[in-house]
Design brief:
By secondary structure, this protein is an alpha/beta fold. It is built from 17 helices and 14 strands. Helix 7 runs parallel beside helix 9. Pfam families: EAL.
Length: 412
């Protein structure tokens, strides 16, 4: 099906393609045409930049190996020109270099679609472009910085416009929906639903603590409604180190959650969890005594000491999505994931693989010993009222693992 069949011809999305290899450019242009996108091709970065504002493309597809500026410098130049579309990188360099470039793009505020190896396959290109809203220009970030003022955020908190969606988490051994991760969204009255990256960095420490309490309160209320429908799930909430220091978190949980409430898991990033060994141990111990658990999020991207990990009463490790994305193609990623899963088994804690986009990796994750999985390939974040339906649906996980002939692993 043509991705843009539902839109008028004049609304077709435009992609700018930059690469020095004419064969690559020719094939990619044809593939974009098949998918319903117009394309303009360039062999020099300065030529692309000169036309960027004039043609307002929705997508830039670019290699990293070409003259001056190089690909990473071009990402900085795109950010300086406030490019509000999407960026897809072309392979041809060492995978580590592509990843560094992608992280640089994210840090600069660009919307990155990852990278594709050459030669590109049409199916892979189609999958990457599924994230786009074809034919529609992306929202342009206003000249004012930051996008949202502190007063707007304060008003949003007071009007309770910040709502909660839930990322489903599945148990690999059984394939069942076992838990959810609470993710905040801003239901803006004019703009619509806004993701957290657009407003969380603007929050003050005090606002962040209030928001965490709001998310926890809302999530516990939703969990109680699910329980009344016969759906019992663990509940994960992202917190900062500053949030954990606030005494109201354990008190709020005890107040809102009855004795038979679901397991509450507070997720903190690896770097924050390891910054202060004694402080981290004290916080985690107090939360444990309050009936909550602590998970280390994005595990593997920091450089924390394993001895510190041994000291913290942690119940869950979440493997960063950057290692899961190329699990089937990159032996180094596979080795890292396997080592983290083994570490989790030895410590007797759950190991969650984040960012699962392809179900083909599930047998490998199960064989390594990962216990739980989550990601867009299984389900996108959904509103609270969709969770009971997901819990009743037949999960594809178990069937895929059984069909592969792989052992399903075990859950501590």
């Amino acid at each position: 099906m043509n991705l843009l069949a539902e839109y008028d011809e004049e609304e077709r999305a435009l992609a700018l393609v930059l690469d020095e290899d004419p064969d690559v450019v020719a094939v990619l242009s044809l593939q974009l045409h098949v998918l319903g996108l117009e394309s303009r091709c360039y062999r020099r970065a300065d030529a692309l930049l000169a036309e960027l504002d004039e043609c307002a493309p929705q997508l830039v597809i670019m290699g990293l190996e070409f003259g001056d500026p190089d690909g990473i410098e071009l990402l900085r130049l795109l950010a300086e020109q406030r490019f509000a579309g999407w960026v897809l990188l072309l392979g041809g360099v060492e995978r580590k270099i592509s990843r560094i470039a992608e992280r640089v793009g994210h840090t600069l505020g660009l919307q990155m679609l990852g990278s594709l190896d050459k030669p590109m396959r049409l199916a892979e290109l189609r999958q990457r472009l599924d994230r786009l809203r074809p034919g529609r220009k992306p929202a342009i970030v206003p000249e004012d910085s930051p996008f949202f003022s502190a007063d707007e955020l304060e008003s949003a908190l007071q009007r309770r416009e910040l709502t909660v969606h839930y990322q489903p988490q599945f148990e690999l051994a059984s394939g069942r929906l076992s838990g959810v991760e609470a993710l905040v969204r801003w239901s803006h009255p004019q703009i619509g639903l806004i993701g957290p990256a657009s407003f969380l960095p603007m929050l003050t420490a005090a606002q962040s603590r209030r928001l965490t309490c709001h998310v926890l309160e809302q999530a516990l209320a939703d969990a109680q409604r699910w329980r009344e429908q016969g759906v019992l799930l663990s509940l994960s909430v992202n917190v900062t180190a500053d949030d954990l220091m606030a005494s109201q978190l354990p008190a709020l949980t005890r107040q809102l959650a009855p004795g038979d409430s679901p397991l509450v898991v507070l997720e903190i990033t690896e770097t924050a969890a390891m910054d202060d060994e004694l402080l981290g141990s004290e916080i985690a111990a107090r939360l444990h005594l309050s009936g909550m658990e602590v998970a280390v999020d994005d595990f593997g991207v920091g450089f924390s000491s394993l001895s510190r990990l041994q000291m913290l009463p942690i119940s869950e490790l979440k493997i960063d999505r950057s290692f899961i994305r190329h699990l089937q193609q990159d032996s180094q990623d596979a080795a890292i994931v396997e080592a983290i899963a083994l570490l989790g088994r030895r410590l007797g804690i759950r190991v969650v693989a984040e960012g699962v986009e392809e179900l083909d990796c599930l047998p490998t994750l199960a064989r390594f010993g990962c216990t739980h999985v989550q990601g867009f390939g299984l389900s996108r974040p959904v509103p609270a009222d969709e969770i009971p339906r997901l819990a009743c649906d037949q999960s594809p996980i178990r069937a895929r693992i059984v069909a592969s002939g792989e052992p399903s692993g075990s859950t501590p």
